């Protein structure tokens, strides 16, 4: 029986600076696990890491590949390999109607418009929202818009899906629904979050601080140390 190809994110000796500020210096990281969580304080490099892996920003030195695809130089290959959801769906949605939003990425992959729209309809039906086809995106709730972004990403068939604080600005029911959707995905997932409780069942957790890997391992090893450090910092901070 033929084994499926290994899904690998390879970040090799990467140096990255943004707006004149250093983010990573010689970062090496290899991800193969199905569920990877990333934690750290604001400004630690979490969002920059997944943007690198998605090919949305280019390092000044080093190489980033996902499943062998150079995601910076091969944008077509990147679209077929990785998908990313940002904190705010309004920073991601660009079309007025749901069907147009879902079809856009497929058309970027070279699919004819009619085929792209048919795949988009199938995705809506899969999630039980066939009636959303002509809905206006701006009339949907925050959680519903986040789901539209997820469906648009999944329609393109990536092997990896990156989530950048997907629970921000969501009420508890909407956050739980998105969390359940993430748990059901067949794709490999990398989740950036400030909430350690979301990562208890993950395979691996990486703790970043100022662009450095402080800890990298199983949730039961990394998260208690991370929480203890955050609590220490809270006690040390002036009121």
TrEMBL record:
One of its GO terms (cellular component) is ATP-binding cassette (ABC) transporter complex. SMART domains: AAA. Keywords: ATP-binding, Nucleotide-binding, Transport. SUPFAM superfamilies: P-loop containing nucleoside triphosphate hydrolases (SSF52540). InterPro entries: AAA+_ATPase (IPR003593), ABC_transporter-like_ATP-bd (IPR003439), ABC_transpr_CbiO/EcfA_su (IPR015856), ECF_ABC_transporter_ATP-bd (IPR050095), P-loop_NTPase (IPR027417). Residues 9-235 form the ABC transporter domain. It holds the Pfam family ABC_tran. One of its GO terms (molecular function) is ATPase-coupled transmembrane transporter activity. Belongs to the ABC transporter superfamily. This is Cobalt ABC transporter. It comes from Pseudothioclava arenosa.
């Amino acid at each position: 029986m033929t084994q499926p190809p290994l899904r690998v994110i390879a970040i090799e000796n990467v140096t990255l600076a943004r707006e004149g500020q250093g983010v990573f210096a010689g970062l090496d990281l290899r991800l193969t696990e199905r569920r990877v969580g990333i934690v750290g304080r604001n400004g630690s490099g979490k969002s920059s890491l997944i943007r690198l892996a998605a090919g949305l920003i280019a390092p000044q030195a080093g190489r980033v590949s996902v499943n062998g695809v150079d995601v910076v130089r091969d944008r077509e290959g990147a679209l077929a390999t990785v998908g990313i959801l940002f904190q705010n769906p309004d920073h991601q949605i660009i079309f007025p109607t749901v069907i147009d939003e879902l079809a856009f990425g497929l058309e970027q992959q070279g699919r004819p418009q009619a085929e792209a729209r048919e795949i988009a309809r199938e995705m809506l039906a899969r999630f039980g929202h066939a009636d959303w086809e002509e809905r206006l995106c701006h009339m949907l709730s925050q959680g519903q818009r986040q789901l539209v972004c997820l469906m648009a990403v999944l329609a393109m068939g990536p092997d990896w899906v990156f989530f950048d604080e997907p629970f921000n600005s969501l009420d508890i029911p909407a956050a739980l629904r998105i969390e359940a959707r993430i748990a059901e995905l067949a794709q490999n997932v990398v989740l950036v979050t400030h909430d350690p409780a979301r990562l208890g069942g993950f395979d691996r957790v990486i703790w970043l601080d100022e662009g450095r890997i402080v800890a990298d391992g199983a949730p039961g090893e990394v998260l208690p140390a991370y929480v203890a450090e955050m609590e220490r910092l809270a006690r040390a901070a002036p009121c």
